[in-house]
Amino acid sequence: MESPDPICGGVPPLVASFVDTFVDYCVSGLFFPTNPNPNPNANPNPDPPPTRFPPAARLVAIGDLHGDLHKAREALSLAGLSEPSSSAAGASRWCGGATVAVQVGDVLDRGGDEIRLLYLLHRLKLDAARHGGALLTVLGNHEVMNVAGDFRYATPAGLDEFASWARWFRAGLAMKRLVPDLPPPRDPFRGVPTSFPGIKPEFWEGLTARIAALRPEGPISARFLAENHTVLVVGDSVFVHGGLLESHVEHGLETINEEVREWIRGARPRAPAHVRGRDAVVWLRKFSEDGEGKECDCTHLKDVLGRIPGTRRMVMGHTIQKQGITAACGEQAVRIDVGLSRGCGDGAPQVLEIGSGGNAVRVLATEPATVVGRWGVRRREDEVAKEGLAMLVKESGTGLREVEARA
Questions:
Q1: May I ask the CATH architecture of the domain 60-151+214-404?
Q2: Which of 105, 77, 108, 106 has the alpha carbon at shortest distance from 90?
Q3: CA separation for the pair 335, 314 (Å, rounded)
Q4: Which of 21, 128, 191, 301 could form a disulfide with 133 if both were Cys (CB 3.0 to 4.6 A apart)?
């Protein structure tokens, strides 16, 4: 029996790689680097990403993006991480050098650019690593909700984007099935409902696509969300979407990260307890709400930080700061969700910057905003915050209505 031709034997994987590249470009307008010499002996179970990172000479943090590609590009450019370009290719080139950047979650929902935004952040991660920098992404409550099948804040434009993605993804599956020596590709649409009684039929295709893409082990969740952090420490700063309590720290930050990753990969039947409920790390508002009779509990925050060696501040998103990035408790609590997305506030982009040693901390803001003190940023007087509308898909799956959006 003749041995297989080593040259021809390498063709099917090349075809599969071409198909993946084709689908990626059709969906996002971006090309992704490929490894021309993949290691066949690579460890199938590599070490999980670290939870703690050393101090950075320049550290920046960006708040919630909520499906707004245009405003996200503005924030990335403001932070000095990407070129101020309106093109997908230009905005995906990292120009931050050795900067370490953290995006604190809530990329999904409230807008129509969710998938393209995930692609952009992923492309910047790869380019940052090539230039000695890093872009680290944190999971928000909206990522957790979507993986769990809770689409109450998905918009019609967002559903359209997922429907478009599904058409290209299915085309890619069909092309791969034409290659006889390729293993049959996994079909993420298998078993997903295609009709939803009580919901307008024009949304069905998008809902089917969204479920298939974002459920545990789905092609979008596994690729773009599974490696995200739930909690992250860089130097003396802790990054988390909602906040941390003593019970979270005692459970272990590394443990929380790994349990959530296992769930998104499909290895756990249900979301871990620490990302479910009012006091979950992605839902907590205890250290982010000020005014109207609510104040940050500084004693409590100090105790939590004291349980994480070497940390001095907690940087959070999730709760919109209408006056811009704010700090409390002697700058131990830093809140960076400025309601940037046009689907949720349409705030002016702002970025937190922390210099070497963690001492030089400032807010980067777009003109003509005026900095008030060290933290507050006053918006233009003619700028009116716009309340967003979101789609609510009831958990029972029997209806669809619009509700006033809240972070």
A1: 4-Layer Sandwich (3.60)
A2: 77
A3: 8
A4: 128
DSSP label of 184: P
For residues 338 and 63, the answer to whether their CB atoms sit within 8 Å is: yes
Helix runs in 46-131, H state only: 69-78, 88-91, 114-130
Backbone angles phi, psi at 389, to 5 degrees: -115, 145
Q: How far apart are CA 239 and CA 315, in angstroms?
A: 5
48 against 242, higher pLDDT? 242
pLDDT value of residue 87? 67
Q: From CA 212, how far away is CA 188, in angstroms rounded?
A: 5
Instruction: Please tell me the predicted confidence (pLDDT) of residue 160.
Output: 98
In this structure, what token pair is assigned to residue 120?
């952009």
Could you give the CA distance from residue 87 to residue 350 in angstroms, rounded to a whole number?
A: 21
Residue among 360, 354, 278, 355 nearest 319 (CA): 278
pLDDT in tens, 260-281: 999 999 999 999 999 999 999 9
Domains of the chain: which residue ranges? 60-151+214-404
Which stretches of 149-288 are assigned E, i.e. beta strand?
231-234, 237-240
Angle, alpha carbons 36-39-45 (nearest 5°)? 130
Residue type, 271: A
Residues in the chain: 407
Name residues whose C-beta falls within 8 Å of residue 183's C-beta, 6 or more positions apart in sequence.
Answer: none
| Nearest-angstrom CA–CA distance, 297 and 76 | 32
DSSP state of 273: G
Q: Tell me the mean pLDDT in the region 382-401.
A: 31
291: DSSP letter: B
Whether pLDDT at 407 is above 80: no
142 a catalytic residue? yes
Pairing of strands 326-328, 333-335: antiparallel
Q: Which of 260, 253, 256 is nearest to 307 (CA)?
A: 253
* Residue 328 confidence (pLDDT) above 90: yes
What digits encode the pLDDT tens for the residues 206-260?
Answer: 999 999 999 999 999 999 999 999 999 999 999 999 999 999 999 999 999 999 9
Catalytic residue chosen out of the listed positions 66, 122, 142, 229: 142
Sequential DSSP letters for 312-365: -EEEE-SS--TTSSEEETTTTEEE-----STTTB-PPPEEEEEEGGG--EEEEE
368 prior amide bond cis, ω within 30 = yes
